[in-house]
Amino acid sequence: MILDFPSRPPVFCEPPEDLLRGLGHQPVEVGRSVRDYLAVFSKAEEILALKPNWHLLEQLDCLGIMVTAPGDEVDFVSRFFAPRAGVLEDPVTGSAHCTLIPYWAARLGKQKLVAWQLSKRGGELFCQDAGDRVKIGGKAVLYLEGFINI
C-alpha cells in the first residue's frame, strides 16, 4: 500500500532558543513546515545521541519536531518528537515525511528515496517526491484492533 500525502517543504528560519536547548545539540540548519520544525544534522549518530528535554520542546509553537541526517545505508534517517501532543517519540511518522521527502529530494537530486526512522521500534519507508504530493510506502504494524457498535 502507498500513502499519498500533500507535500509540505520546509522554509528555513532562525531556530528558537527552546528548540536548540531542547535538542541539546546544534543542527546544521533549521526549517519550519506548516506545523512542525525540521532540524538537520550531519550524521545519523548525532540523531541517535539526542536526549531531548521534553519540557523545553513542549513549549514550542508547533505540533512536532523532526530531526534528520543523511543515512549510511539509506538516503536519510529521522526521528520525530511531539511532546506537545503527548507523544514523546513516534515510532514511524508518515506525516513528518511530507516535509522530509521534499527536503531530501531537493538536497540529493532524486525523486525516489529510502528512509529509516531511528525510533526504538524503527521503520523503513520507501518515498517518492511527486511535486505537490509525496508518496510513502513500507510495512505496517498492527497496534490496535477493536469493534464499534452502532
Tell me what the structure shows:
The protein has about 150 residues and is α+β, with helices and mostly antiparallel strands. The chain has one domain: Diaminopimelate Epimerase, Chain A, domain 1 (Roll). It is about 20% helix and about 35% strand. Strands 1, 2, 3, 4, 5, 6, 7, 8, 9 and 10 form a ten-stranded mixed beta sheet that branches. A hairpin with a 5-residue loop joins β8 (about 110-115) and β9 (about 125-130). The radius of gyration is 15 Å and the shape is globular. The relative contact order is 0.19.
Keywords, separated by commas or semicolons:
150 residues, single chain, 4 helices, 20% helix, Diaminopimelate Epimerase, Chain A, domain 1, globular
Count of individual helical segments: 4
Please provide the ordered H/E string of secondary-structure elements. Answer: EEHEEHHEEEHEEE
Structural class category: alpha+beta
- Indicate the CATH topology: Diaminopimelate Epimerase, Chain A, domain 1
Shape: globular
CATH-derived architecture: Roll
* CATH homology group: Diaminopimelate Epimerase, Chain A, domain 1
CATH class: Alpha Beta
Beta strands, count:
10
Distance between the termini: 29 Å
Summary of the model, kept short:
The protein has 150 residues and is α+β, with helices and mostly antiparallel strands.
